[in-house]
Protein: ROK family protein
Amino acid sequence: ESLGSSSLGPCKMPAAVDFAVEPLSEVAVEILRGTTPEERETAVVLALRPGPLAPYALPVVIPQPDHALRERGLALLWSRAVSVAAAVVGTSHLRLVTEYEETFQRLAADFRSHVVVTEHLKQYGDALTLERAPACEVPAQLRAMPFSRGKAETCAAPQEPIEPIPQKVRTDAVEASCRLFVGVDYGRSDVKCAVVDAAGKELSTYVTRWWLPEDGSLGAKGERRYLDPAVMTSIQEPLRCLGEAALEAVAKALEPGVAGGRPVICGLGLSAAGCVRDGRLCGIPPSFGGCRREEAAPVLAHLELTILDYLRSHAAERLGGRVIVDGSCSTLLVNDGDASAMWGASGLARATATPEGPKAVGLFLSCGTGLAGGIVQEGGLRCQGGVLELGKLVMGLPRASGGEVPVHDTLRLPGAAQGLAGTQRSFFNLLAARGGQRLEGKAEQRAVIIAMQKRPLDHEVEEIFRTLGEWLARFVLELSEYLPFQLTDVEVGGKLTDAASGEVMLQCAAEVLKVRGITRVRRAEESEFGQALAVA
Structure:
């Protein structure tokens, strides 16, 4: 069947024809070309961060009051400010350096009119505050996002034990092939798990969609009904999905000839589709959005430990006593974007092994139902100082001509990257823009993607994926506006990167980004289980 009509030409970054979204960078260029230096003001958005880091500072050039492009400039300022707060830094405390009280009042009014956004920002600790600041508060370095090894290597610890912990195992006496490390990666569509040994050898992988028992019980056996996790109302329901998936992966690792001796689970890592700060989930991630908050909050505060406790409680019954869960088992919780970056870091080093010149900086994207990503410098240092919730980045303004403008599913922000930048959402939004049926069911969407990837690479499919590649490139360019360094590499994982159609998408993005100094755009080496393997 036809996937929708298309009139898009070669991959030359033309004006958007399928999404009625005008990239913010084009708006900024229009303002610079349409004003003289005397007609501009430079507002600086300051985002306060916890700890010793100085405020993040982003300058935004807009027209002065009474200029014909003033409204365009104020819309640009709002889009940049909300992206800083929700997508880049993750903060509920903003300050604005501006020459005009009118500019400050307009930005404050924009935040007040977006109640969903201000409620969302509370997850960072407090209600939103926006204050006017003097120019002397602007730090010396703009857009500061430092690199460090930091938090991806630390292990979260419970404030108090969730369950009595069994005796500790002398893991130094257990051979490397018997020491198991479990990685769990969840998103809005499914749960993926991987098990490796102490040498990093992959022993097993397992994937499942979210489910409930057909009989409505809390048991793990019997027929399953697959569904969107957001419809689950008790936190015990998604917790069971996560725990059972981990047990299934361990069971596969225990099959004859895979792991020797009597294995010991020594570590559990969690790649979480949600905002993570200092090794803790912030607020209620979308996958758990239907759960009762008062019940979910204490579980999500230590989700990786709760999953580990599930393994301890059910391993004997489900695995027949064939594995021990170490009482001093280490744990790790990172954002799924950071997990993508951890997995891709070794590939970045291999691709850029040159002694001279500046170090390479890679952007590692996971394009699933939503969009996640992390940034790593050659040598393994990770970009710190923010949350990098990339799906919330506002990429552009709705065009006056009307048309398809994707809206973020929780923040209700038009033109957000989640629905534009190479994700499964962007694919189905594009089909809808071209007159196709809008599909909402996960099973239906998955079936359409698989069927499309099995088709020959005809003109229609190629044109669709060229368009997706252009929007992926636009996203990278928009993100670069918030970074103090030059990206050199982009690595992309996700269902849409598979098959020949995925190659078209990435090749198109590479053609656009090459002229901007990004020399390598490639598919993640392991796009399905890479994040689970990374945290394992």
